[in-house]
Design brief:
- The chain is α/β, with parallel strands linked by helices.
- It has helices at 7-16, 46-49, 53-64, 82-86, 89-92, 117-137, 158-181, 189-204, 220-233, 297-301, 329-334, 338-341, 348-382, 386-412; strands at residues 39-44, 71-76, 100-104, 141-145, 186-187, 239-246, 251-253, 257-263, 266-271, 303-309, 315-320, 323-328, 336-337, 417-425.
- It contains 14 helices and 14 strands.
- Helix 7 (158-181) links the parallel strand 4 and strand 5 (186-187).
- It is globular and about 75 Å long.
Length: 426
Amino acid sequence: MFSRHVRPILVLIVLTFIAPVAAGIEPVETSKVLKPGNRLVIIGDSITEQKLYSRYLEDYLTACTPQLNLWIMQLGWGGETAGGFLGRMDQDLLAFKPNVITTCYGMNDGQYRPYDEQTVGRPYAVNMKNLIDRAKLAGAIVVVGSPGAVDTKFFRNADAAKWYNDNLSHLKDLDKKLAADAKLPFADVHDIMVQTMLKAKDARGDDFPVCGRDGVHPGANGQLIMAYAFLKALGMDETIGVISVDMNGKAQGSDGHKIVASEAGKVTIESTHYPFCFSGDEKSDNSPRSILPYLPFQQDFNRLTLIVTNLKTEKAKVTWGKESKTFTHGQLESGVNLAAEFPNNPFSAAFQKVDDRVREKQEFETQMIKSHYRSLNALAAMADDDESKAAVTLLRKKLPERHAKLAEAVKAAVAPVQHTIEVVPE
């Protein structure tokens, strides 16, 4: 039986866990990587463990595309390499029976020195291939993500940033080849980060961090670039919705946007598909808003379009929630992206609630994988009778149950939002 010193640990762990793990779901054929009901796991090193790009992905795939009804988990682990992950792959990944896995290794695999085929390239390629092969054998699609980039200003010095980004570019090429050979999707995180960083620094100055103030770990702005790369690789190209307003009184909404009431130039909608909402200082690297001028996120993934017909004037003022903005006749007739034009909008508070629940869940995932499972392994090694072994078995069951409750809270947060759009001719 466990000693009196171990029993308090058992009690503490029991109090932490509670709810049932979702059953594995068979893949459904569609043209996109993600199928309805899939189980998606996001793996990587400390950049993943920051829980920023992983959070943005889960926010988007939960609130903006709720029809997918996904089960999502992040497994970031600071300091990890692709080879290091192989040692924990069975317990920490395959045990959850994922359908789709995104990888983001290479930053540590590059060893923070110039590229060398023998000591850097080959080991990385071998480890990534083993990871991919084991995942495929378990029935999962791997979205092979390249490493990101280091900041041209904040990583050591300009020369070091140049040779390490060259190193990461070589690893990116290896990832791309591995994906092509295995007929898997490839997420080019490196190139989009470099390209966006150059645009942003050209506009904002070299002191504007894109790949992090330590040169390696991106802030919220750089992490949105990473989320963009993975959404692209996952095959997402979502129109969040289209709302058509006829100034003569009729209105229409696409799937996820039910017309509740309409009159000339005014429509009330109940929406279950959210636009991705951005908060924070548009000038700060700690806010994803600051990178939007240099990244086509809104155009590619966040289109909530308002189309106005039968407008008799050259301009009209559009009021959405508490904000108003004037557009030309041509703009409104072609379609205005409300998500891009109105950063503060009727979905902002609801979206924040979803993000809060996602943050809570992903924080638990880090604790569960890095701490709780390891503690249970240690307790299992100390169990020397049936009662002790049964206690460990019970605790192992409580972990996924607690995770399932947090996942349910995420989905429950995506409540319908009722909002009104008013178009007033000017």
